[in-house]
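Budget justification note: compute hours in this period were largely spent on complex prediction jobs such as the one shown. Inputs:
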Amino acid sequence: MARRTGRRPGNPDTREAILGAARAAFAERGFDGASIRAIAAAAQVDPALVHHYFGSKDQLFLAAMNAPVDPRELLPKVLAGDRDGIGERLVRMFLGVWDSPAGTAGVALLRSAVSNEWTARLLREFLVTQVLRRVLDQLDVDPAELPLRGSLVASQLIGLAMMRHVVRLEPVASAAPETLVAAVGPTVQRYLTGDLPV
Amino acid sequence: MARRTGRRPGNPDTREAILGAARAAFAERGFDGASIRAIAAAAQVDPALVHHYFGSKDQLFLAAMNAPVDPRELLPKVLAGDRDGIGERLVRMFLGVWDSPAGTAGVALLRSAVSNEWTARLLREFLVTQVLRRVLDQLDVDPAELPLRGSLVASQLIGLAMMRHVVRLEPVASAAPETLVAAVGPTVQRYLTGDLPV
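Corresponding output:
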């Protein structure tokens, strides 16, 4: 039988118990600090069952925060190609996700993050460990500068999503993606690889 | 008797009726499309009473959206001085407001805008008519480019507020204001006066 994608089988109560424990652990300790073993203990299941249901820690994290996309599938296209074009490619990928059906889930996530401290922490961990770290690891920049660079990129991209999809400020709300890629790409590029006052 | 600042006198029910009608009118028709006369009619009061309680249409708008600051008091400092420094001065002013007690009201406003379409519209009108239009009117740029420039500036500044005060992504969350002024000022300057692909 072909392996099914989408929702995996398993006892719904057990799945929910694991996801609840995972949300708590990732929010409280961060992605790096949370362990599958501790999450399994909190959910009162065997760690092997967590792996069976969700796969890797990355996958469990994405499931726990209802992430609408898996950055590991999208980032290779951003990272392939010339270093000076990575800002534009990252903005193009970001806009593509938000303009797709996944954008609805993105708005829901932003909405939740703004009103709920736990979701804000999960969103922060998502941005850092699933997106920014993976992009910045590929660039030849001073490791000490990575956190500032990453959080500046996040500030511009989240603000772009806010204006385009939540506040709906024109013309950003309905501009052609390539207009925004050309306008915002150089900003993201500078934050990633340009001179910063660190 | 010295003129009191702060909450003005008047019948609380009448004040609330006017504010409710004003919120509806500004959200439905925008700042430019809403009139004091129509707001007064909706609140079933005389237009002179609206002026008596709230002063100008600008002041009524700020009261209706619980704006924690009046941009007309802050923007002159941003606009005074050399054109090439306006991006840094705007970021410095913006961070100063958000790092002050007014920032708490700002977070509440963002929170409400994300979950409530009306507040999102009011925030959009606030950004455009009270802040961006006033800044851009002072700059010698093509009027056709003003909306895109304004909404790009808004995307960066709102994203900065989101990361610093809501998602609290480090090091942006606790960076010295001048670090962020130096990092983000050039972005805002480019959006205001630089070459854009319009």
